[in-house]
Amino acid sequence: MTRPPQSRGTVLAAVAALAAVVTLVSTAILLGTSAGTTGTAGAAGGRVGGPLASVRTKGASPPPAPAGTWTGTWAAAPAAAEPRTGRRGLAGTSVRNVVHTSVGGTGVRVQLSNLFGNRPLHIGHASVAVAARPGAAAAAPGSMRRLTFGGRPATVVPAGRATVSDPVPLPVAPASGLLVTVFSAVPSGPVTLHPHARQLSWLARGDRTEDGDGARYTTRTAYWRYVTAVDVRGTEAAGSVVALGDSITDGVTSTVGADQRWTDHLAARLREEPGAPRYGVLNEGISGNRILLSNRGRSPANNPSALDRFDRDVLGRTGVRAVVIELGVNDILRRPQQLDPRRIVAGLRQLVARAHEHGLPVLGSTLTPFGGHLGVVPRQETVRLAVNAEIRAGRVFDSVVDFDRVLRDPADPQRLLPAYDSGDRLHPNDAGYRRMAGAVDLGVLGGSLRVGPGL
C-alpha cells in the first residue's frame, strides 16, 4: 500500500517531537532521582554510607538529583548553643557560612541543624553557591542556587533535630569554597553553632540569601552556624573518612582562613598522591572535647562527649568508609580530670566497638604531648604514657597513627617539638598539623585497614 506524501511541516514536527523525547530521556539519565535523600531520624540518627539524618518536609516532590554517588565533602560537629541567642536567635539576619570542600561533584545537598535549639527553627530561605574567591562573601557568577526542602523554599526544623535540603545541580571543585546561607525571620531561640571554625564567615541584615555580590555582608564572624554537613554527588570519590577529635582535630591555633588543619592536609594527600583512596575528609573535631564527659549546665549539653555524639557525628555522615580517632587529652587535663588510664582506654574501646558494629575500621592516634602547658602536673603525664602504651600495644584500635612520636621533642619527649608548637605547649602550629597529616598511612585508609576481632 502506498503511503500518502507527508508535508515538510509534518516531518519537521515529528523530528522536533523525537528530539524532545531524547532530551527528556538524556536528562533523566544524567540527573537520576533523589529517592531516599530525606527521611525521619532522631538528632543522633543516620545510616553509614547513606543519606544524612533529617526530618522530612511535606510538600512538592524534590527536584531530581545529579547522577553519581553521594559523598560527604565537608562537616563540622554541632558543638554548642550560641551565647546571647536564647530568645530571638538571629531573626532577621542572613548567615553566610564559608566552608571548604575536600572532594568535588556535580550536585550538592546541605544539612542544617537545630540540635541546641529549644524551639522550632523557621528557615525562610537558604542557598548554596561557589565562593568567588577564598573567604569571600561574593558568589562566583552563575553559581547561586536556592535550596529547597521537599520542594519548598521554607522549612521548620524541630528543636533537637536536623534537616537536609533537596539536591541541587551545582558543579563543585575539590578544595574550593562554598557559601551556605540561611535566613530566618522568626525568633528561633538558641543558635546551633561550631565556635572554632578557623574560617571567617559573614552576616547581613535582612533576607540577602540569594545576593550574589556579597556587598551587604559587612559583618565578619568566626563561627559556623546551623550548617553541619555538605554532601556532593559525583563519580570520583569512593567514600569519606571521619576524623573524630578535640581541638587538635578542630585545628585550633591554625591560621584562620588558610585551611591548615591536619584534616585539610590529609584531604590534599588523598586528592593528590598516586594510589591514594579518593575519600572526602569530614572534620568532626570539637575544641575541649572528651571521650567520657560532656559539659554541664544545659540540655542537651554543650560540647557533648565523643560517646554521646558518635552516632550523629560519625555514623550519621554520608559514605563513611573509615574513622580516625584523636581523643583523650582533655579527659586528662579538664576538670573533673580523669586520672585512671583504664577508664580512658575503656572509653576508646567503646567508640571502636560502635564503629565495628557498622563495619567501620578505626585508625587511632596516640595522645600528643602537653608538657609545659598551663597547670599540667606529673601525674597527668603518667596517665598519658599509660594510655599510649595500650594504644601502641595494639589493644585499642585496628591500626595506630603515632601523633605523639611525630610531634614530640626528642630531647624532651613530654613536650612538643618547638618547630611544631603554636606557643601554648599543647596545640600544634601549621607545620605541626602538616606533619600530623604526613604521618597517616594512606595505604591503611585505602584498604589494608580492617575491622579487628573485637577489642
Q: Could you describe the 3D structure shown?
A:
The protein has 455 residues and is α+β, with helices and mostly antiparallel strands. The chain has 2 domains: 69-229; 238-447, SGNH hydrolase (Rossmann fold, 3-Layer(aba) Sandwich). It is built from 10 helices and 23 strands. The strands form 6 sheets. It has a 6-stranded antiparallel beta sheet with strand order 7-6-11-3-13-14, with no helix packed on it. Helix 3 (262-272) packs across helix 9, helix 4 runs parallel beside helix 6 (341-357) and helix 6 (341-357) runs parallel beside helix 7. The longest helix is centred in the first third of the chain and has 24 residues, at 8-31. The protein is globular and about 55 Å long. The model is unreliable at 1-51 and 53-59 (pLDDT under 50).
Layout: helices, strands, pairs:
Blueprint: H1 8-31, E1 69-75, E2 80-81, E3 93-100, E4 105-113, E5 121-123, E6 125-130, E7 145-146, E8 155-157, E9 162-164, E10 168-172, E11 177-184, E12 192-194, E13 201-205, E14 219-221, E15 224-225, E16 227-234, E17 239-245, H2 247-250, H3 262-272, E18 279-285, H4 306-315, E19 320-326, H5 329-333, H6 341-357, E20 362-365, H7 378-392, E21 399-401, H8 403-407, E22 408-409, E23 412-416, H9 430-439, H10 442-448
Parallel strand pairs: 17-18, 17-19, 19-20, 20-21
Antiparallel strand pairs: 1-16, 2-12, 3-11, 3-13, 4-9, 4-10, 4-16, 5-8, 6-7, 6-11, 12-15, 13-14, 22-23
Helix pairs in contact: 3-9, 4-6, 6-7
Protein name: SGNH hydrolase
Keywords: Hydrolase
Domain SGNH hydrolase-type esterase: 243-435
